[in-house]
């Protein structure tokens, strides 16, 4: 099952959490992962380290609440632990591929949990395999462990730095070694990672909403290129890799991926989304009676649209919270059928009304098309679709799962063609300029999914999957 092929996808959307010097660390990590469930729903794992330096782990496929129970967590003894929630793509949903990855190398045990995507993974893996490395998973994360094992450095911190110097791309990771927890973020700062203080100990999380849930006080973000090491000597920080200028923080974290109650890249996500909504209302006004959101990811943007336009905000679609995000399912069939499982229109709100429906993004367009049909069936007289980001025209190679170009509706259809495809009365996207104006430091954001201008080069000749994802499409203008 795990036979590697260069076509296998390793794309990762994930959440990581770590605790150092915290009583019953695994329970805290379990709580933290619960708050990060939106970042990955297919598998989850926790590895703890007890006072003797022994590692204990528990992993499973499914949601945090399904995988851990009291008995499982109580076996994960120790005051140090790391955990991971994972989203996987077709073919790679296996227990072996569930992080944290745990290994024993010459200098002892290690466990690694990684959020991001390494763009030179295939090349590195090929070289390592040719030199005799045996891989246990299809994850790019495992490459870091092999590179660490090859390093002659004496400490896990130094071995990790040596490994990190050989990879390119996005990583926000936490590493567990006996008596030590390390947090490290790539020099571009693609994915978030923050530090909190909990009692006498520390926690590290993908998003601050996880710090809130465990009752930790937010200290700060791990800076791009910074390595933070927690051990008996306390919290030590170093900058082994110089931060890039400008940074390439993922703008999609602000648009869609992070929770609105988190502070990500130094900003409250809700605040950024409100500004997006304001700007969208200015750029794309609509003659309508009310505004609704595609819940939950678009709630803050739709509220912003309502505030700016003066159109009243209504709850016209109700989301069933007991199903996962529609997009975070590996198969197209699952995605399609789950739109109906996930959303139900409120007839009393929509009937006879001219409705502005706000979504954060359109990727394939399949969700929006089905939603529009549901709303029409519930009696909406007019549907004006407004999107809080520009058309997604290019796949992401830095940790957001996006399909290949030919599946991106924004890459193959013009806005008017998308309007017709969605069967809406009007369609309006936020401009890239408008989106960037909603950020305090617009220069420090990656926007490759809207422009195709990739800040860390992807080499399609070394990577068949990348080649497939980037395969040319007939651009809308030429149609
Ligand atoms: P689509 O049917 O592909 O156009 O799906 C668009 C919907 O998926 C939007 O409502 C977004 O909220 C959500 N979405 C956008 N990007 C992602 C992503 N990378 N992962 C999961 N969901 C996403």
Automatic annotation (TrEMBL):
SUPFAM superfamilies, sorted: N-terminal nucleophile aminohydrolases (Ntn hydrolases) (SSF56235), PRTase-like (SSF53271)
Residue positions binding Mg(2+): 297, 359-360
Active site, per annotation: 14
Keyword flag Acyltransferase: no
Gene3D superfamilies: 3.40.50.2020, Glutamine Phosphoribosylpyrophosphate, subunit 1, domain 1 (3.60.20.10)
Cofactor note: Binds 1 Mg(2+) ion per subunit.
EC numbers, comma separated: 2.4.2.14
CDD domains named in the record: GPATase_N, PRTases_typeI
Gene Ontology biological process terms, A to Z: 'de novo' IMP biosynthetic process; purine nucleobase biosynthetic process
Pathway assigned to this chain's UniProt record: Purine metabolism; IMP biosynthesis via de novo pathway; N(1)-(5-phospho-D-ribosyl)glycinamide from 5-phospho-alpha-D-ribose 1-diphosphate: step 1/2
Reaction equations catalysed: 5-phospho-beta-D-ribosylamine + L-glutamate + diphosphate = 5-phospho-alpha-D-ribose 1-diphosphate + L-glutamine + H2O
Binding-site list for [4Fe-4S] cluster: 250, 396, 446, 449
Domain Glutamine amidotransferase type-2: 14-233
Pfam families noted in UniProt: GATase_6, Pribosyltran
Keyword list, A-Z: 4Fe-4S, Glutamine amidotransferase, Glycosyltransferase, Iron, Iron-sulfur, Magnesium, Metal-binding, Purine biosynthesis, Transferase
Keyword Iron: yes
CC cofactor: Mg(2+); [4Fe-4S] cluster
GO molecular function, one term: magnesium ion binding
Family: In the C-terminal section; belongs to the purine/pyrimidine phosphoribosyltransferase family.
Functional note: Catalyzes the formation of phosphoribosylamine from phosphoribosylpyrophosphate (PRPP) and glutamine.
Name of protein: Amidophosphoribosyltransferase
Organism: Eiseniibacteriota bacterium
